[in-house]
Amino acid sequence: MILPDAATLRIFHDAQLKRFGGAPGLRDPGLLEAAVGRVHSALAYVEMDAVEAAAMLCHAVLKNHAFVDGNKRTAYGALVMVLAGNGLRLKAGDMEIADMILTAAGSQDGHDVIADWLRPRVDAR
Length: 125
Prior knowledge:
Blueprint: H1 6-20, H2 29-45, H3 50-64, H4 71-85, E1 88-90, H5 94-105, H6 111-118, E2 122-124
Antiparallel strand pairs: 1-2
Helix pairs in contact: 1-4, 2-3, 3-4, 3-6
């Protein structure tokens, strides 16, 4: 399973802020490491596919809120990195994706809701 590390997510985050704006800063590096570590830890104990891993990382980045700004953009980027790194692509429109990310960010539901949303919208590249 190919997963981005915390350093890669931080680079992605910084690039998104440069492109689209937002307040810079990492509130807590440990929260970003914990988000990535959550998926690695789960993979050690549970069999999961790339869709579930992408959903779990997206959810962890959303909920841990490691950055001052750009957490939702970084969560989406993490999701796409996991899918692409494992030979998958997301087939959904920008508004549909934005709605899913905003809903997940404001929800108490787990990553399984994101995975359920992803499954019919993912295919092999």
